[in-house]
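Minutes, project check-in

Agenda point 3 was the complex the collaborators sent over. CS summarized: three entities, 1047 residues total, and the question is how they sit relative to each other. Sequences were read into the notes so everyone works from the same version.
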Amino acid sequence: MKVLRYMLIFIPISFICKFLNVSPSIMFVLAALSIVPLAGLMGEGTEEISFYSGPKIGGFLNATFGNATELIISFFALKEGLFEVVKSSIAGSVIGNVLLVLGASMLFGGLKHKSQSFNKKVVEVSSSMLLFAVVGLCIPALFTHTVDPELLNTRYEGLSIFVAVVMILIYILSLVFSFFTHKHIYASANEEENHGTAKWSLSKAIGVLIISTVFIAIESEFLVGGIESLTESLGLSEFFVGIILIPIIGNAAEHSTAIIMAMKNKMDVAIEIAIGSSLQIILFVAPVLIFLSLLFTPMSIVFNEFELIALIVAVLIANRVSSDGESNWLEGVQLLAVYLIIAASFFIL
Amino acid sequence: MKVLRYMLIFIPISFICKFLNVSPSIMFVLAALSIVPLAGLMGEGTEEISFYSGPKIGGFLNATFGNATELIISFFALKEGLFEVVKSSIAGSVIGNVLLVLGASMLFGGLKHKSQSFNKKVVEVSSSMLLFAVVGLCIPALFTHTVDPELLNTRYEGLSIFVAVVMILIYILSLVFSFFTHKHIYASANEEENHGTAKWSLSKAIGVLIISTVFIAIESEFLVGGIESLTESLGLSEFFVGIILIPIIGNAAEHSTAIIMAMKNKMDVAIEIAIGSSLQIILFVAPVLIFLSLLFTPMSIVFNEFELIALIVAVLIANRVSSDGESNWLEGVQLLAVYLIIAASFFIL
Amino acid sequence: MKVLRYMLIFIPISFICKFLNVSPSIMFVLAALSIVPLAGLMGEGTEEISFYSGPKIGGFLNATFGNATELIISFFALKEGLFEVVKSSIAGSVIGNVLLVLGASMLFGGLKHKSQSFNKKVVEVSSSMLLFAVVGLCIPALFTHTVDPELLNTRYEGLSIFVAVVMILIYILSLVFSFFTHKHIYASANEEENHGTAKWSLSKAIGVLIISTVFIAIESEFLVGGIESLTESLGLSEFFVGIILIPIIGNAAEHSTAIIMAMKNKMDVAIEIAIGSSLQIILFVAPVLIFLSLLFTPMSIVFNEFELIALIVAVLIANRVSSDGESNWLEGVQLLAVYLIIAASFFIL
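CS then shared the predicted structure for the full assembly.
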């Protein structure tokens, strides 16, 4: 994780290049390289604050700020009207977490520790929730793709807002579940993570959180500004940028944590990061983006067929993986293979 | 359950209104309100008879009469040529049982009893059967939606009848399985239910069964007669009536039993009602309706895409829910949320 | 198994008939009847060699020659440009193994032994792999069916070759997994099978293997040569031949072994044959056929919608069946019922 700090050098570089008016494609790359360490800092800041706030508020902060980078990037993409990028990055975050992060965790963890076991019960609760959440989120799209689009246009947004309200309610109820009514299920898992002490003072932690948020916002604007130029110059589709590149940029720091945890044989933590992060994307980030879109042009939560396939594949695999309570390197390789095939399919679009 | 008795007052009201020639939409509502307590009486009558007939015939009666109300309503819809209503009410019964009934049972049961466990083995047998049954029932539709409809028209009914014959054979074999070759699996579950004694004399039970069947038939005709008027005046689609309203009307009594069982911490019974009832719909009611349709116009068992999605979602969720052997209020909320989103999607059609 | 030997008489009969220039449809039938015992001999030859080569090389030989018959038939179909037959026979082998073989094993095994249990862990590893493999193999098709075909034509083969390379890599890695890094998981299962001794000398075994391969090749050419005539004269589609007939012909010997094992209450072995054979088809046979097709006309691995549905249904059911560690005759009946309905649907095409 420490090595990420050196990447902060890309922030001043990106500012200088912006001043020198370099091409938007290069700005995209520089912004991407800047956001990776900033997202890491933001995560560290949130974690430090949670030492002062106690486990409940800390858990809430972690759950809510965990995908803040993604949310900020998507906000700027939304402002630019890049709906396809926003929607595909929601789908891409889920498949990135379930296939890429979980796959890499199982591969590297499995190479070090022959066979790794995890708490089946906790993982099953999360992966069940993921199934319900993905199903709920996809239903409007599934319905939409099977009727004449002209018939339904005016009611799309109504349904999207309804789904968004339902999702956010479930998000709130799931926090009530894990921090109040059923906190005992998560007790042991949380203990392991929380036996550290704060490295930073509270004011430093809050300062880091604020500063990293501000810089992520600025760099996100550079990033989004470069998407069009990048897709044109490299012949990529917006879908590829949204489903593969943006989720990797936004979650790189978190991803490396999951892999490190897997290599320390804390497979529970690695899986919780991957599945938990997917859940937050669907139950929190996606509805918030729908609400925010009302400020500009209302965005409907209708995924295209590719995104639906990717989401459904990811959720089926997450449920399968969780149901045996064990993992090994071959399972990791297979998850990565599915990710690669999906990425290749989006690449040739 | 007793409170349902007071609703019997809607029977004479509906007769008077019919005599006064009130609008068919109002007749629909009155018939619906009459059918709910009648279905409850029919269920009670069947249960009482099973005290006299012994567990085997009793089990068979319960299994076969469990969805009699649904069958009667569908028969009249079939007679009127309302195929879309009939097919969507088959799909609607399955999703109503799996999402609405199971969801409400888990929610209310879970609020009272922190975490409820059930016999994983029995539930897995049922939910496996549900998977196979739904897959078998949906294959003709899945094939049909992917080929040029003009090519296949003439062979549809042949395939539908073939599927119906297969389904009814599996239904008979599943009765052989649960009452003869593998009755030990169900032994403990049945004992719990059967330690009561008959409240009614046999002749009273048979009388109640006959009278309630006759009145359900009359009210079903009122109900079906009002569908067209209702869809027009409220701007609803026939699909919404079939998939949401009719299953709720036909199964309300059964639904309340499931929820009461869950609140008494008999989660096994609640789940068996929900999944068992879905199985009966697919393996018994659906094929019987196909056979009956040969008396009028042959009905093909080709679901539309919406119904397919709803069925597949329901069966995936039923399998997921059954695989961990435990339930809590949050799982209930999530099932209800998926049901609400599906209902909302059908609502905007 | 011994009874299959008598069927070898069809080899000379087929040669005589070829010489007499009988109709290609009859040649198809005779070739089919010849291939069944030849495939059995080839399997026996491979098994005998494995007694001399030790378990590692033996396991590899079994894994690789297990579907040699299928591979040879498909090679000649490929040479004739019968791509639809080749692709549908890949899908057909998977559904044949998972639905027909597993169904028949569970039915006949279950009739003899009330309820049969199997090693859940080993089966779960295989059925997880099957899920990942099928998902990976189907992604190009799923993507292709949702975009304008004219847009993508030129890049199809590239994606197919990429998928083939990924599949064959996973196949090699899975051999590394089961023979090197994780051989302990399979230890007990293999021991049971290997406590026999060689019946044949090594030279006899090799001789049998070579001769049966040569005759399978000749008969496969007769078989493929008769497909067109057969489909025309019986009014069948090429899909039906590919998805139902060819897999049954190619795997009949293996199928009978699985059923015999199930009746001996070795359900583990029966399931491993069914699921393991499906895995080899996807991870080894399918990619090899794509590579071989480059010698003639490149074949893309884009399944049609029917094949996709059949594959996805098969894999879902395999995963469901494996997750409870037990089987009974009713489960067998249900698998066979799903197979019958799929076969009937392809029949009416």
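Noted in discussion: Chain A touches chain C at residues 114-115, 304-306, 309, 313, 316-317, 320-321, 323-324, 328-331, 333-335, 337-338, 340-342, 344-345, 348-349 (CB under 8 Å).
Follow-up: revisit at the next meeting once the mutant set is ready.
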